[in-house]
Amino acid sequence: MWMWGCVRGGLIGTGCGKYISKETQDVLMSVFGLSAVANGVMSLIKGNTMPPVILALIVGVFAGQVLQLERRVKSGLGIALRKLPVSAEKINMDEYVTVVAIFCASGFGIYGVLTEGMTGDPSILLSKSIMDLFTAVLFAGTMGAAVSLIAVPQLAIFLALFFLARLIVPLTTPKLLNDFVACGGILTIAAGLRVSKIKDIPLINMLPALVLVMPFSAVWGMIF
64-67: long-range contacts (C-beta < 8 A, 24 or more apart)? Predict the structure, then answer.
C-alpha cells in the first residue's frame, strides 16, 4: 500500500509527461519544492527539544561527508538504472537522488510509518500515498519510469521502520518520537530547497542524523 502512489504516479507521469511543457514542469517543480518546505516545517514544529536535533544533524552530516554516502548512493543508483529497462540517459542523478530522499526520508512518511507500527493506524500513510501519486506524476514527466523504481527502496526503508517501531516502542517516549520527526522535517526542508534550486544540500549525507537523533535526545533529557 505504501509504495503504490509512487508506482502508479511514476507510470502515469511517464505516459503523460510529454504533454506538459518544460516551462510548466519547471514551475510545478518549484511549487513542489515550496510544498516540501512547508511540509518539513510542519514536522519540525513537532520537535520537543532542538539542541539534540541540531547536534544529531551536525554529527550525522559529518559522518555522511566522511563516508561520502551521497556519492556512493548516486553511483549505485546510476549502475542499477543502467542495468534496468529504463531510459537513464536523460536523468540528472543529482535530481534523482533528491527525489529518492523525498519519497524515502520525509518527516511525514517517517511519522506515518512509525505511527502505524506503534498504534496500527494507517491513516497518515494513506494520505502520504495519495501525495506520492501526484508527486511521482510530476517527477516522472522529466525522469520517466525510473521514478516508479523508487518504490523499491521506499518499501524496504518503510518496512524496516515499521518493524523497528514495534520493537522500540517500549523504549520510546512521545518526546523522543517528536524529536525524530522534527529531524525528518529538516531533511524534508532541505529536499524542498534542493528541488527548488535554492540550495544544493547533500541530502543523503544528512541521513545518519535520523539514526542519532533519538539517542541524543534521550541523553539530553537525562542530563537536562
Answer: 64/202, 64/204, 64/205, 64/206, 64/207, 64/208, 65/202, 65/205, 67/205
The pLDDT tens digits of the residues spanning 143-161 come to 777 888 888 888 888 888 8
Q: Please give the distance of CA 221 from its chain centroid, rounded to a whole number.
A: 27
For 1, other C-beta atoms within 10 Å of its C-beta total 11
> Could you write out the DSSP letters of every residue in 128-168?
HHHHHHHHHHHHHHHHGGGGGGGHHHHHHHHHHHHHHHHHH
DSSP string, 18-60: GGS-HHHHHHHHHHHHHHHHHHHHHHHTT-S-HHHHHHHHHHH
Cell numbers placing 91: 536523468
pTM of the model: 0.78
Is the model more confident about 186 or about 114?
Answer: 186
Give alpha helix (H) positions in 169-202.
174-195
Grid cell 552530516 is found at 61
